[in-house]
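User: I'll paste a sequence; please echo it back and then give the predicted structure.

Assistant: Echoing your sequence first, then the prediction.
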Amino acid sequence: MPYDVLVFGAHPDDAEMGMGGTIAKLARAGHSLLIVSLTRGERGTFGDGATRAREAAAAAAILECETRILDFPDTRLENDLETRDVVMRLVREARPRLVFAPYHTSTLGHRDGAAHVDHRQTGTLVREALRIARLAGVEPQLPPHDVGRLLYYMVPRDRLPHVLVDVSDAMETLERALQAYATQMRIERQGNPILDVLRTFRRYYGIAAGCTYAEGFLAEEPLRADVGTLFTL
């Protein structure tokens, strides 16, 4: 089935925690979205694979999108031929115009959740798979597909985002979707509940964007703007 937007994550909840407000706004605007988790998150501190799959389905229903969970091993994602081919086939089948993935590089410490090895591997895997998906000679039984734009979420704290999306009017939906992940809402960062941490990051980006809450993204290619939109950048 074709989708306008594919959002890749390493684990159930990555997409919602990283860019759930943008997902909610894209769905509200009428775009079809599929969230793809490469693993079941079965080796995390809270929740087993089956529980996290149920939570992902509940969150997707709130965000009005679809979700699919693959079965690569949690904490052991590899940028290998098998995994790239699976992602490439997904892209060719879904034929999205826009793809999101966690950012692939981080110099931050071992306590930084966004720097999880699976997050970084997912970003690299998706970037490589999109390159392969364009090549007509690779698995010609599936027509090649060139994605219009790849954007990265989970922007490292030592990087400034290239794109900020105002999600102020999507926060209520986002927080309901996050609370569907009851196991993951038990996480704390330096004694701070994870929901408070996620809200704070969005508030920080909101200040930079001139709104209440925003989500940030990185791009590796130039972003085109028409003259009329330069005044609103």
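The chain has one domain: 5-222. The two ends are 34 Å apart (CA to CA).
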